[in-house]
From TrEMBL:
Stress-response A/B barrel domain mapped to chain residues: 2-94
Source species, domain of life: Bacteria
Record organism: Devosia nanyangense
Gene3D superfamilies to which the protein is assigned, alphabetical: 3.30.70.100
Coiled coil location: none
Protein name: Dabb family protein
Organism phylogeny: Bacteria, Pseudomonadati, Pseudomonadota, Alphaproteobacteria, Hyphomicrobiales
Length: 97
């Protein structure tokens, strides 16, 4: 199993229609890609880091993750929305020990 996580900040003002639209559209685009399980959108609450949001999802194996990474819905979302609207991010992919 691979758990794919990303924490990020948006360029949009907190609580704005643009922020809400990005989060809505991300869910629609990403959670429906084959192989994605346990998709979650998260709000960061700790004062220990500066990131505001997180996405987390799981894949059965590396093959499923690689298929997601190349999937046209994922690549289009990254190109059309993520690259334009995300200010900064940190991506972490985990496997169980």
């Amino acid at each position: 199993m691979i758990r794919h996580t990303v924490i990020f900040n948006l360029k949009h003002a907190h609580g704005s229609l643009q922020e809400k639209g990005f989060l809505r559209d991300a869910r629609i685009a990403l959670e429906t890609i084959p192989g994605v399980t346990k998709f979650e959108q998260l709000r960061q609450v700790s004062p220990k880091n500066e990131y505001r949001f997180g996405f987390s999802m799981e894949f059965a194996d590396k093959k499923a993750y690689d298929a997601y990474d190349r999937h046209p819905k994922h690549t289009a979302f990254v190109q059309d929305r993520w690259n334009r609207e995300v200010e900064k991010f940190l991506e972490i992919d985990y496997e169980k020990l």
